[in-house]
Sequence to fold (650 residues):
Amino acid sequence: MAGRKGNLMGVRDDIKLLDATIRDGGLCNNFEFTDEFVTELYKTNVKSGIDYMEFGYKASRNMFNESEFGKWKFCKEEDLRAIVGDNLSDMKIAVMADVGRCDYRTDFIPKSESVIDMVRVACYIHQIPAAIEMIEHFHTLGYETTCNIMAVSQVSTEQLTQALEMLSQSSVDVIYLVDSYGSLYPENASELARMYIKAVEGTGKQIGFHAHNNQNLAFANTIETMSYGVSYLDATVQAMGRGAGNCAMELLLGFLKNPKYNLYYLLKFIEKYMLPLKEQGVVWGYDLQYMFTGMLNRHPREAIEYTNQHRNDFSEFYKILLENY
Amino acid sequence: MAGRKGNLMGVRDDIKLLDATIRDGGLCNNFEFTDEFVTELYKTNVKSGIDYMEFGYKASRNMFNESEFGKWKFCKEEDLRAIVGDNLSDMKIAVMADVGRCDYRTDFIPKSESVIDMVRVACYIHQIPAAIEMIEHFHTLGYETTCNIMAVSQVSTEQLTQALEMLSQSSVDVIYLVDSYGSLYPENASELARMYIKAVEGTGKQIGFHAHNNQNLAFANTIETMSYGVSYLDATVQAMGRGAGNCAMELLLGFLKNPKYNLYYLLKFIEKYMLPLKEQGVVWGYDLQYMFTGMLNRHPREAIEYTNQHRNDFSEFYKILLENY
Fold:
């Protein structure tokens, strides 16, 4: 398999940082960010040199009631433009579309009329054909596209090989390795990354990585997969994201040597907007209950429930997880 | 350089876990643990399959006033025996002796009369000759010994090569790679680990790793260096240790596949003894201020001071660190 790409002191121009704070972080607060928060994060990301900012989901308004969620679950064009105007910055705007949970044929206008640059299609392995159909549609509309294959830690090598082969023949621009359960160790993550990279060799497609911090390995797995050639890196401010959270953007900005990236403005944002969010009681981040679901390679839903109940009986929770394996 | 040793599903019998909670964690609370805490941790470690438990320092009572510290800064024989009796368990007892800060010629009795099994000699690179003198003394007394070379991230390759050569000709049993500033990335850590391993090839000596969590990489660096053949792994309960803390023992117990290790009892201990410690205001663990000193490869003293002052002006603190680089 291929070796490492670049070194710890160099700059790799293929690296793209994607801030997923509003999208993955929105899962912690029902997407109820204030306009000020989102506007200031947008400005901060531009000043920090971030390459893409994901604003949320384009969820079906037939399946989900708009009154029950913050607006970033739906990312309507007018709501995006209220924040970014015509987005005159170099940073690109991304939204996520879940297979089976969006009305992609009606809810997306041509790229030439939209401020959105990239649509990220999230799917499980059995939804790959549906994902490809969506990707081709978005490609025809003029958008950049990614395919984020979730929960790969539960997928067989054979299935994954077939999925990667199908995607490598599609119009998709970036294929994401997604550690949904935070169950990958750096050795697993880099092995999978090399498999993805090999699958797209010669196609011009890029590979991305989306981490979860269940075993406190989100940052480590991100820089490890990057070292083998993964170039699209998801992160969120202070690792805000469902359950144990993601890879912290500040850690990545501290690590990367490209002078276009700047840590200082993100720290200002953290002081003014993230600390109050935590004080208001929005909860995320590594803790023992997430370590358990990570090491057992399962969905964090029980750990999230445990967290919401403010429980501290870790040993009992662990015992029951083992019983329900 | 040598490749990885073992795999993610296997058991490596050379692995030894060392719990350093009282010693490194003692730096957070002036070594003022209750006897109940230390006794219960000892029992927990025995039940969890931990190989070594480090009880604290053997600091000079001429240099440090006994009334100003908890007893685990001095680890007197009678204090150890009050906890462990004759230590009839399989777990071994370790203490740390800092070069230049202990009276090693008078304060250590022969191993045959002591409940201590291992003396860990901590030193900076310029103290290697002094460390070797101590190691030979402890070896003559019958103890297992380690040499923990601190702050290697600031040491030149030439110096380190010489130090490792000197140590490989000494009586030391284990040489520790110590990431004092939490500044190593997994790539650096594993490269250094392979250098240490190569230096002791054919001598029968083992290599250990002691992590700090400044960049949230303590666990990642520990399992990464282990994968290349490091076998003595330091960890602490809930990562308790100076500043950003260490590698969390619970993460290691969750990772290792050897059935001798057991996570459940440690969780019971955490519930009953660690959560109250945090509630009492004992503070440690990853936060932005430690990330800064980690990425800048410097001593965390300014970050510890910042923490003690309960400051939240991260951007200002970062700016000043850059000015005083």
Observations:
- The two ends of chain B are 34 Å apart (CA to CA).
